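Notebook p. 47: complex prediction with ribulose-5-phosphate.
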Amino acid sequence: MPWGMKNRLSQLIRPNGHCMFMPIDHGYFQGPTSKLERPGETIQPIIDYADALFCTRGVLRSCINPVNSKPIILRVSGGTSMVGKDLANEGLTTTMEEVIRLNAAAVGISVFIGSDYEHQTLLNLSKLVNEGEKYGIPVMAVTAVGRELEKRDARYLALCCRIAAELGARVVKTYWCEDFEKVTNGCPVPVVMAGGPKTNSDLEVLEFVHDGMQKGAIGVNLGRNIWQNEYPVAMIKSLYAIIHENATVEQAHEIFNGEKDKKSKE
Ligand code: 5RP
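Predicted complex, structure tokens below:
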């Protein structure tokens, strides 16, 4: 692997092979998502626990201090909105020149497999990989489902991850699902898990992240279930324990409850 590519990937993935990415890119199609109205303030208490930040150039420039920042994964696809016709109709929004100017460690782009825009978004990915490989910049492919959350099953997600890897993504982001090993076994590059919309219980998040890690994920790119939680520090600390310290669900839950109690007494 070329030196620059290896160097950037090593900024994102720790020597233990695991990673915790903190996504705050949601506004690029959702607008001021709940708890992300002021992204800089939202991440302030939790960012120390993350290995990288996933965001657009707009939020990066206006809300993130360039001094001593975490490595940046720049979201470079978009062009759609929650109120538009089809979330899948994305294009590339950011040039490689800008990616280099912003000193990003990687770029992220969504692909919408099975949608009307499958071909277009897969070619977006391929073009981005062509550019990224030229400059040693890894591409993280985001296997997006738009509004169709029910698509999150092993057969579909395995198909998406494999196609993204075949087209040259260095890392693939997907959703956790039952039989997650079917997704990781068929994907020749590292897989990270997104969280999706906020779950009903805190334990559920710890359980699915733990299960995904046991079944071959290298970590998470998980946002709403951390920063929309009433106790975001408790949640990120307990996920950190699972991902970087090999904690069980029970141990992680104890950490969550301990941090929650501490916060409640403040
Ligand atoms: C939004 C994204 C997010 O980065 C991804 O979905 C992870 O965030 P969350 O855990 O909140 O789902 O790609 O377009």
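Notes: The chain has a mean pLDDT of 97. Residues 156 and 183 are 9 Å apart (CA to CA).
Next step: compare against the earlier run before touching the bench.
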